[in-house]
Amino acid sequence: MKEGQRKIIDVTCALIIDDQNRVFAAQRSSTMGLPLKWELPGGKIESGETAEACLVREIHEELNIEIEIVTGLNANVHDYPSITIKLIPFICKHLKGEILLKEHADFKWLTKKELLDLDWAAADVPILHNYLNYLNAI
Q: What does the DSSP 8-state code read for residue 23?
């Protein structure tokens, strides 16, 4: 890594789709970075872990549910003031379990028309646009 270059942290996120084709959105708690911003849930990939395994683990840890990954979307590299992340999104189905928020303040299920109405974390916005473009292409 060159001097002055920031390390990029690989982070997964889930577009969890319910049986009404709504997308799950989670609101970050007031004690998390980017407090009260909305995000697609997920987390950092650990050493030796695949993106897919990370996402299944993180969703279980954060939301107490099991998911099935349907497909991936294009990743987005985003520079926050103190960190650079590569956000790796996957479209997922909720398989089983009741949602139990362990880290987040709130959650919502959003239709595609409502998707861009929330105050999203900046890195998630291009992912949402990619998802909407994906829906229009299928």
A: E
Is the pTM here over 0.90, yes or no? yes
CA distance 54 to 81: 25
Conformation bin of residue 21: beta by default, left when phi > 0, alpha when psi is -120 to 50:
left
How many residues in total does the chain contain? 138
Domains of the chain, each with CATH number or no CATH: 8-137 (3.90.79.10)
Distance (Å) of CA 52 to CA 8, 11, 37, 133: 18, 11, 24, 22
pLDDT of residue 122: 96
Tokens 């996957």, residue? 90
As a whole number of angstroms, the distance between CA 44 and CA 110 comes to 24
What is the predicted pLDDT for the residue at 22? 96
Report the distance separating Cα 23 and Cα 44, nearest Å.
21
Give 10-residue mean pLDDT values along the chain (138 residues).
76 96 97 95 97 98 97 96 95 95 96 96 97 90
Residue carrying the six token digits 């969703």: 59
Tokens 């991936």 correspond to: 72
Pairing relationship of beta strands 8-17 and 84-96 according to DSSP bridges? parallel
